[in-house]
C-alpha cells in the first residue's frame, strides 16, 4: 500500500542507532527509526502491507515541541492515541484554522487530503498508532452499518479538500489486545501474512463500529446493555477463539462482571460463561470441515494451547471427541 503519512524530522534532529528509550509496543518486522532533539526522543515504526499501512509514533518529551507531518495523498486512517500524559496532543493543518485534540485512549477515523500537518506535544510520554485503510473495504451495500464513516469514505473516493474526522470511540482492552496481536502476528516471510493483516484490520473496524454505536445509545436499558455485551462477545470469539475473555468485555462496557453475569442469567436463563462456551463450540463445529483431521492446526487457529485442550473442551461440551463427532 502506498505510504501517505510522512514524518518530517526537524533538520536539527539527530537520528540515533542505539536509543536509550525503546518503543513500548514493538511491531514485528517493522521499519524502525529513532531521533533526538533538545532532550526529546521520537520513535517511528512502519509496516507496509498490501491492504493496510501501519504506523506507530512514540514521543518522550522534556521540552514542548511541534513536529511536522505530510499527508502526500488523500487517504482514510483509523487513529489510536494510546497514551498521552499531561495535556492532550494537538493536531493542526498548516495555513488553515483546523485543529483537533488527540486524547488518550480516544480513537477516531480521519480523512486527510494532500496537506501539511503539525502535531504539538506537551511535556510527557505520548503514543499514537494508526492504520491507513483501503477504502475499497467499504462497499456500497455496507453503507448502512458504517453510516458514521461514509462521509470520510466518500471524501477519500473524490479526494475532497477539507480534513474530516469521525465520532470518537474508547480504546479499551479489546482494542489494545487487537492492536498488540496485530503487531505480534505480522510476518512478511509467510504466505498468509496479508490475510492475517486484513483479518485483524477488519476486526478492528467492526470493533470500532460497536464502540461508536454503544457510545451513541448510552445503554438506555439493561436489555440493550446485554445485547451489546453479546455482540462484543461474538465478535471477540470470532477473532480470538479460546482467548476471548469475559473480563475484557465487561471492562470495555464499563460494567461490573458480576452484574453482567446476573443480568444475562435473568434474561436468558443461562450464564454469560455458558453463552461464551456455546459460541466457541459453534465456531469449532463450523471450522471442522476446513481442518479435516488437522486438529493441531485447528487448535492453533482457535487459540487453544494445543489439540489436547481443544479435544477436552469439545468432549466436555458434546460428550464426544472430535474424531467421534466427525465419524457420525
Task: Walk me through this protein's architecture.
The protein has 328 residues and is α+β, with helices and mostly antiparallel strands. The protein is built from ten helices and 14 strands. Helix content is 39%, strand content 26%. Strands 2, 3, 4, 5, 7, 10, 12, 13 and 14 form a nine-stranded antiparallel beta sheet that branches. Strand 8 (89-93) and strand 9 (99-102) form a beta hairpin. The relative contact order is 0.10.
Q: Helix content range of the residues, please?
A: 25-40%
- Write the element-wise H/E pattern from the N-terminal end onward: EEEEEEEEEEEEHEEHHHHHHHHH
Give the distance, in angstroms, between the N- and C-terminal Cα atoms.
Answer: 47 Å
Oligomer: single chain
